[in-house]
Amino acid sequence: MKKILIAMLMLLGSSTIWAQKFVLVDMDYILKNIPAYERANEQLNQVSKKWQAEVDILTTEAQTLYKNYQSEAVFLSEEQKTKREETIVAKEKEAAELKKKYFGPEGELFKKRESLMAPIQEEIYNAVKEICDRKGYSLVLDRASDAGIIFASPKIDISNEVLTKLGYN
Question: What whole-number distance in Å separates Cα of residue 85 and Cα of residue 112?
Fold first, then answer.
C-alpha cells in the first residue's frame, strides 16, 4: 500500500514539471486601446443607423397605410378592402425583408462587421501567437469572455504586452 501511495505522489510531483504555462489577455481592454477598432465600431454604428432609418421609413409607411385603411374601411367595397389589405401586407413584407437583408444572421451588417473587424482580430491573434511562441505559453484565456475565471493574478495578464507588440501604448 505504501508503494502505491509513494508512486502516486511521485507521479503527481513529476506532473508539475510538465505543467503547462498559461496567461490571460483582456480582449476588451486590447480592443479599446486600438484606434482602428474604435473607428470601425463608429463606422458600423453609422451604417447601422442609416439602414435602420430605411427600415423605419417602410414600417411607418405600412402603419400609415393601415391607419388610413381602418378609418376608411366602412366606405370601401370588398374589392377595395382586399386591394388595400394586400398593399399593407406587401409593405410590411418589404420592411421585414429589408430588415433581414441588413440585420439578419448573414445580413449586410454582419458582412460589414466581418470585413472591418477580421483584419484587426487577425493582427491581435498573430501578436498573441508570437508572444506565446517566444515565451513558451501553452494556453491563453480571454479574461473578458466570462469563461468562469473567478480570480486571476495580474502577473499573468499579457494584454499590455500584446498592445506593445501591436505598436500601441
Answer: 36
